[in-house]
Amino acid sequence: MSRRRKRAEHANHERWLVSYADFITLLFAFFVVLFASSQVDKRKVGKISKAMQEAFQQMGVFPAANSRAPVVISDALPAGYIQLIENAGAMPGHGNTSSPSEKTNRPAPPKDMATLQRELTNTLAPELKRGEVLLKLTGEGLVISLREVGFFDSGSADLRPKSEGAVDRISQVLRAQPNNLRIEGHTDNVPIHNSHFASNWELSTARATEMIRLFITRYDFPATRLSAVGYAEYHPVESNQTSEGRAQNRRVDIVVLASALESSR
């Protein structure tokens, strides 16, 4: 019985092409990634670095003399990170987006209440001497108490023309500060009923809102910094049993709140 000869298997000498093609594909992808990374706009990176440097200078971290320090870029920044930082810089309170005029009109940092009291003491020296104004530090802030005798006629919410100078000087000092102001109207316990006001509630509230109106229309205070409240006779500073005590209770208090964000009790 004859045996069949095994047919010799044909060797495939072209299998290396598959591995070579895979290698070339991976190499191509690698160079595409390198090329894309090298195309990040370096000017944007420089702008980001400059904006961050200026922000730290405003916070006092870097001295102003280093405002033009050279920007060294050793590694490319991913484009996605650049977009995130640019979007953050466009948000309010971030980046250098304000004009020179806006920077000039920004209120100064809040002063210490004791420092503000000393400044107002010098500014209102004549009124303090006559007993028409009283300055007092409290837990909430500084209270500028305007007595009725120097600023309002009895039963009226209109500011006396001769007292406008004192209000002008007060506004000049307070306008430069970012602190919120609460204007409080107060009366004594003597009932009132005239053609304008039916009660002390209405009189005290009208005096407070009249001061608000002046601060906004005449002195250009932002309305968001102001609030008005009328307390009638229910927050006295002296006894209502004497004429002297009642005179001191009839007042309008300008409360400079120690917290710049606080606007009410």
Structural class assignment: alpha+beta
Order of H and E elements: HHHHHHEEHHEHEHE
From the N-terminal CA to the C-terminal CA, the straight-line distance is 116 Å
**Rg (CA only):** 37 Å
Main β-sheet, spatial strand arrangement: 1-2-5-3-4
Q: What gross morphology would you assign? A: rod-shaped
Q: What kind of sheet is the major sheet?
A: 5 strands, mixed
Number of domains: 2
Summarize the amount of helix as a percent range.
40-55%
The CATH homologous superfamily name of the largest domain equals: OmpA-like domain
How much strand content do the residues show?
5-15%
CATH topology of the largest domain: 60s Ribosomal Protein L30, Chain: A
- What is the overall pLDDT average? 78
Total number of helices: 10
The CATH C-level class name of the largest domain:
Alpha Beta
State the CATH architecture of the largest domain.
2-Layer Sandwich
Low-confidence stretches: 64-77, 88-105, 261-265
**How many strand segments?**
5
Structure explained in plain terms:
The protein has 2 domains: about 15-105, no CATH class; about 115-255, 60s Ribosomal Protein L30, Chain: A (2-Layer Sandwich). Helix content is about 45%, strand content about 10%. It contains 10 helices and 5 strands. The chain has a 5-stranded mixed β-sheet. Helix 2 (about 40-60) packs parallel to helix 3 (about 80-90) and helix 5 runs antiparallel to helix 8. The longest helix has 23 residues, at about 15-40. The termini are far apart.
